[in-house]
């Protein structure tokens, strides 16, 4: 069994004092960002694990960050929360703490669970996910002075949300997809959207509209179909856009399931995805990489979200939000040069 | 905020003594199975949460069960571990404890992390997942008398594995798929398999072979193609089986990605999945339900696995293993009567 790395070794390698390493772990707000980055890199490199038991005695903290695992629809392809939770676990460990999982009902009904965890000192802070519009948890925790950070926004505004948050910029994502398709020579780019009134869906529609307008290509109502997020409608939505005369040569879909509807509609007409009509999705679900051809999609930057969430927990007076851009993953559905599909 | 449920209320509702409720929580092995079930149902019904802080003082336990979140291939469609972790969290909560997440390298390289968690009394027990052939964790934990249960087997045998385990019966799964296809009138059923020598893959091939033999239908080498689990080979594997003259009318695939290869190969020949050739997959990935037509697949019984894992943690001298059957989810790919696809 290798001997454990000590705080002294971390300090020596990073060229800082023991106190600075200690601050980087326990009070990151006191350390300059570049120093903090260097110390954390050394902690990663050496695999240093702080003695959290001793820390618990000193500070009476549990050394645990609470995370609620939400119920998901069994057929949801939005599996990036699995990747996110792993990234979050690793980031929390970098600060010498661990993630404690719990279940709770959404909304106000779940608040007694948060109260119970705090009453028992089972956790020091919360990392909130599955944030909903009007989510009551943020205000409830802020009123009690409990440290937390939120993945997602409680409303459409950005200024009035209690506590710090990180979110992914959906409009930026669909705008990236449009610019990629323009580069591929497309000039009639349709949009397959979610029903209006859904914040995530509206954001993604807006990015498509804006990027088309900036490029001077059409973004009229004829090129948009919004549908319920349900299979039959998905296929029909894509069909409505596919008019062999003046229909779009590329389709930007607001998520990967809608893009799958487009695959089915194109196949039914004998059109090939990627060569006859380009298609892009959103979320880069595992489905995107196993489809034939592979589906170009936008990958949620869950590793960066996780890192910022943990940093925000330790920043005193952290407030306001940060929008991170998703990453366009190009595959055969929008660029036939790319290999036809992925792996399991 | 509703007043918390007490142990007394649970005892009264379940018609048992306070001691029995206490035993159900802390020493389930002392309680008769039917009583244990009743007490747990009442705990669920009333939302009772034991005071684990007091329990920690009494028994010097952390009240936490360690769970290692493994690195996954970014494009893995095997997302049932996400569902499993949620089920496990809920089951562990039913016993008044919580799940503590951590990361560790696979194999012996990760053992210092387990040692560190035990040395700090950060966890009382481990629930092992991502079990590999020759996994060193089981013996290491057994030697130290640390309670644990394993999802998965460390070898092909079942008798020599240290500690209790639960696994999913792959052979039973493909046999279910074959019997379903026989009922649909198919009598030439091909198998798309993983390369030989992979325990999971060999199990699934054996189930197909055995069910065909039992029904008296052919299960010859002409009907089997095994391939690397990689896209190009997947498509080619399906192609090899599809001989319009005497080729199979149904294909059982060892996983959903292989089934996707069959979808692509059939489409390339102008054949329709479900009506011209039936296809089944394995694992019931989210992909299965969003494909058009939906892919018949075998669902991992993660809720039952999670429940047994937590029960095994609390059974003194638990050893040996249990194989649970997966559940066949029938969709349009093997039964055109079913709706064509699922939802996002």
Query: How many domain regions of chain A?
Result: 2
Per DSSP, the total helix count of chain A is 13
The CATH superfamily name of the largest domain in chain A is: Response regulator
Which topology of the largest domain in chain A does CATH recognise? Rossmann fold
Kindly report the greatest chain-chain contact and the residue count on each side.
A-B, 71 and 70 residues
Measure the end-to-end span of chain A: 35 Å
Give the overall average pLDDT of chain A.
84
Per DSSP, what share of the residues of chain A sits in E-state strands of 2 or more residues?
5-15%
Radius of gyration from the alpha-carbon trace of chain A, in angstroms: 23 Å
**Quick one: CATH class of the largest domain in chain A?**
Alpha Beta
- Helical fraction of chain A equals 40-55%
Low-confidence stretches of chain A: 53-59, 340-344
Class per helix and strand makeup of chain A: alpha/beta
Lateral arrangement of strands in the main beta sheet of chain A: 2-1-3-4-5-11
Strand segment count of chain A: 12
Question: What gross morphology of chain A would you assign?
Answer: elongated
Task: Explain how this protein is built.
The structure is a homodimer of 344-residue chains. With 344 residues, chain A is α/β, with parallel strands linked by helices. Chain A folds into two domains: 64-168 and 302-324, 3-Layer(aba) Sandwich (Rossmann fold), CATH 3.40.50; 170-300 and 329-338, Response regulator (Rossmann fold, 3-Layer(aba) Sandwich), CATH 3.40.50. Chain A is 41% helix and 14% strand. The first copy, chain A, is built from 13 helices and twelve strands. Chain A has a six-stranded parallel beta sheet with strand order 2-1-3-4-5-11, with helices on both faces. In chain A, strand 1, helix 5 and strand 2 form a beta-alpha-beta unit. In chain A, helix 1 packs across helix 2 and helix 1 crosses helix 3. Chain A starts with 6 loop residues before the first helix and ends in a 15-residue tail after the last strand. Mean pLDDT of chain A is 84; it is low at 53-59 and 340-344. At the A-B interface, helix 5, strand 2, helix 6, helix 10 and helix 11 of A face helix 5, strand 2, helix 6, helix 10 and helix 11 of B. Strand 2 of chain A pairs antiparallel with strand 2 of chain B, so a sheet runs across the interface.
């Amino acid at each position: 069994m290798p001997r454990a790395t000590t705080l002294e070794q971390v300090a020596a390698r990073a060229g800082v004092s023991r106190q600075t390493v200690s601050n980087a772990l326990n009070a990151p707000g006191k350390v300059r960002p570049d120093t903090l980055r260097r110390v954390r890199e050394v902690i990663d490199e050496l695999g240093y694990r702080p003695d959290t038991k001793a820390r618990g005695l000193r500070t009476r903290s549990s050394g645990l960050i609470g995370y609620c695992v939400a119920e998901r629809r069994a057929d949801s392809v939005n599996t990036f929360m699995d990747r996110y939770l792993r990234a979050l676990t690793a980031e929390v460990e970098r600060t010498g703490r661990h993630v404690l999982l719990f279940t709770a009902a959404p909304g106000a009904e779940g608040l007694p669970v948060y109260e119970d965890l705090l009453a028992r000192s089972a956790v020091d802070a919360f990392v909130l996910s599955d944030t909903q519009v009007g989510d009551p948890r943020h205000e409830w925790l802020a009123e009690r002075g409990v440290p937390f950070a939120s993945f997602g926004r409680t409303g459409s505004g950005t200024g009035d949300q209690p506590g710090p948050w990180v979110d992914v910029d959906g409009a930026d994502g669909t705008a990236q997809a449009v610019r990629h398709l323009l580069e591929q020579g497309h000039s009639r780019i349709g949009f397959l959207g979610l029903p209006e009134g859904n914040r995530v869906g509206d954001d993604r529609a807006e990015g498509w509209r804006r990027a088309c307008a900036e490029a001077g290509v059409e973004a009229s109502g004829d090129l948009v179909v919004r549908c319920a997020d349900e299979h039959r409608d998905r296929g029909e939505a894509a069909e409505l856009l596919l008019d062999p005369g003046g229909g779009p040569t590329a389709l930007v879909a607001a998520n990967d399931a809608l893009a799958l509807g487009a695959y089915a509609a194109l196949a039914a007409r004998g059109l090939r995805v990627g060569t006859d009509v380009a298609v892009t999705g959103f979320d880069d679900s595992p489905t995107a990489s196993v489809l034939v051809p592979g589906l170009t999609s936008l990958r949620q930057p869950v590793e960066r979200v996780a890192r910022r969430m943990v940093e925000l927990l330790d920043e005193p007076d952290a407030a306001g939000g940060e929008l991170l851009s998703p990453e366009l993953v190009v595959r055969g559905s929008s660029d036939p040069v790319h290999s036809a599909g992925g792996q399991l």
